[in-house]
């Protein structure tokens, strides 16, 4: 089980940017869209974020939350944030990498050794650098929320090592590193919107999928999966971002409140995920899912690490990757 660490506010990377001086706060309502079901931790975090923003601004800034893909699937929500039709969104980092390929760094397999390692990186210099890079895509980064470490489920056989992946049709994210990793192991990676995954598993269109344990349980994927392997093969963050133009029209006070609330909600979500990882795993065992708790992590790592890193390094070099490796404890 991955050890988790309490988020440190002092390590936060989100910062308020003033645009042409401080403005007087006026009543404002913003729309926040996310992917999570009612029982997903992102729903709890988004609700807490909205509450904190309203508290910090004495009600002059309000957030209306639209969950469960109500305003579109992950790619369309992200595009809405870039265009300004949605004010704030959070979704998995893999969806950012099409327009912001440098963020592919965070999805490299076996990049992070623990939650503590991931949090140090995301809340530190590397995270700040990547957040700033989002400005070129029309986004203002607020904080790194999370999905967590990804594990693998399927309906064909127990997965103990990379050789067991051959021939399996696995739903993955569209992230190039994820797709390449599964291709390298002989699987057939099949990116698709998350909202379609349950039915695709149920009908046999795909054999399996990979997501954090609590996310699998919250979205009832265990109902249509027989095996779960705790591979922890990649960590997925879920950046909370805002349309840059909309951000620039806010008062300095509202910007500060949003940044502070985003960071506090990130800490809150991480605590929730810590508990949910344990309870979700037990609930799926009780349901009858066969859990492979100690797959051959070394073999998985050896199979995919070098090939996926090489592609990233050829495009972006080693500077940020070296800093992440150096932060491992």
Give the helix/strand layout:
Blueprint: E1 28-34, H1 41-56, E2 61-66, H2 74-83, E3 88-90, H3 115-122, H4 125-133, E4 139-149, E5 151-154, E6 169-171, H5 176-184, E7 188-189, H6 197-203, E8 208-211, H7 213-218, E9 227-229, E10 235-243, H8 244-248, H9 252-287, E11 290-292, H10 297-316, H11 319-326
Parallel strand pairs: 1-2, 1-3, 6-7, 6-8, 9-11
Antiparallel strand pairs: 3-10, 4-10, 5-8, 5-9
Give a quick precis of the structure.
The protein is α/β, with parallel strands linked by helices and 329 residues long. Helices cover 41% and strands 17% of the residues.
- In DSSP terms (H or I, runs of 4 or more residues), the helix count works out at 11
How many domains? The number is 2
Look at the structure and name the CATH superfamily of the largest domain.
Bacterial extracellular solute-binding protein, family 7
* Spatial separation of the terminal alpha carbons: 16 Å
**Main sheet characteristics:** 6 strands, mixed
Unreliable stretches: 1-25
The CATH topology annotation of the largest domain reads as: D-Maltodextrin-Binding Protein, domain 2
Q: Any idea what the shape is?
A: globular
Mean pLDDT, to the nearest integer, reads 92
What's the helix-strand series?
A: EHEHEHHEEEHEHEHEEHHEHH
Which class of the largest domain in CATH terms? Alpha Beta
Gyration radius, in Å: 19 Å
């Amino acid at each position: 089980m991955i050890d988790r660490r309490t988020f440190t506010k002092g390590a936060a990377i989100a910062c308020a940017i003033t645009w042409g001086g401080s403005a007087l706060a006026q009543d404002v309502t913003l729309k926040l869209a996310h992917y999570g079901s009612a029982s997903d931790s992102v729903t709890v975090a988004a609700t807490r974020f909205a509450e904190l923003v309203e508290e910090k601004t004495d009600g002059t800034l309000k957030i209306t939350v639209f969950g469960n893909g109500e305003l579109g699937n992950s790619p369309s929500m992200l595009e809405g944030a870039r265009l300004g039709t949605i004010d704030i969104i959070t979704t998995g980092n893999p969806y950012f990498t099409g327009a912001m390929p440098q963020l592919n760094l965070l999805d490299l397999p076996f990049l992070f050794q623990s939650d503590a390692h991931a949090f140090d990186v995301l809340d530190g210099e590397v995270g700040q650098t990547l957040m700033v890079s989002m400005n070129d895509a029309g986004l203002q980064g607020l904080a790194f929320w999370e999905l967590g470490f990804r594990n693998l489920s399927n309906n064909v056989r127990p997965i103990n090592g990379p050789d067991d992946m051959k021939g399996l049709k696995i739903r993955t994210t569209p992230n190039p590193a994820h797709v390449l990793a599964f291709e390298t192991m002989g699987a057939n990676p099949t990116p698709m919107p998350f909202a379609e995954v349950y039915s695709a598993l149920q009908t046999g269109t795909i054999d399996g999928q990979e997501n954090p344990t609590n996310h699998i349980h919250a979205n009832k994927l265990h109902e249509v999966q027989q095996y779960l392997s705790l591979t922890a093969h990649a960590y997925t963050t879920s950046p909370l971002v805002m349309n840059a133009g909309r951000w620039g029209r806010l008062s300095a006070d509202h910007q500060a409140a949003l940044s502070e609330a985003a960071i506090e909600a990130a800490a809150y979500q991480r605590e929730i995920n810590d508990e949910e990882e344990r309870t979700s795993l037990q609930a799926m065992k009780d349901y009858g899912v066969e859990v492979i708790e100690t797959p051959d992590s070394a073999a998985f790592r050896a199979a995919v690490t070098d090939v996926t890193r090489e592609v990233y390094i050829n495009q972006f070099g080693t500077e940020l990757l070296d800093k992440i490796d150096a932060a491992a404890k």
